[in-house]
Amino acid sequence: MENSSVPSSQRRFFLTVLLGAIGAALAALGGWPLLRFLAPASKEGAGGKVSLAKDAVPVGGVHFLQFHGQTAVVMQQKAGEFTALSAICTHLGCVVQWKAQKGEFVCPCHGGRFSPSGAVLGGPPPKPLESIPVVLSGDQILIG
Ligand code: FES
After folding, report:
1. Confidence (pTM)
2. Residue 112 beta carbon below 6 angstroms from any ligand 1 atom
3. Over the stretch 101-113, which tens digit does the pLDDT of each residue have?
């Protein structure tokens, strides 16, 4: 016995449309991160250089900075000789730390170790830290 003024076929259609809309919204929410992950990285700004004052990098020291959205490190091992590396560990992507006493980079996640040139010294990283080109221009270091 039904005492509703809306016919059951209209209710069924409404519920079908409503569930379809909810399903589409959930699929879109779940699919967006997947599409972003699978899409190639944007080239916008990829060729842009990041500048840094030479004074920011002490002789024998390092300076961490953001380079195209990721952490990089600039070093001055000898006076006037600047190099730059990605500070992203090649194992699982943690940011490496500089250990001045040992003169090497150490990854805090699984103990990966890298030389100042980025070569793997130990631990699980499968390849060296990525090198980043450096150009000197007056009192600035242009990275990238
Ligand atoms: S993420 Fe660096 S050693 Fe695992």
Report:
1. 0.68
2. yes
3. 999 999 999 999 9
15/19 Cα distance (integer angstroms): 6
In a domain, 45, yes or no: no
Q: Residue 58: inside a domain, yes or no?
A: yes
Using alpha carbons only, give the angle 98, 103, 108 rounded to the nearest 5 degrees: 35
Ligand 1 touching residue 94 (CB < 6 A)? yes
Which residue has 């390849």 as its token pair? 127
* Number of domains, the chain: 2
Which one of 86, 88, 104, 109 would you pick to mutate in the ligand 1 pocket, going by the greatest count of ligand atoms within 8 A of its CB? 109
Q: Give me 34's structure tokens.
A: 């997947």
What residue numbers bound the domain in which 13 lies? 1-39
Instruction: Tell whether 114 is covered by a domain.
Output: yes
**Claim to verify: residue 59 and residue 129 sit in the same structural domain:** yes
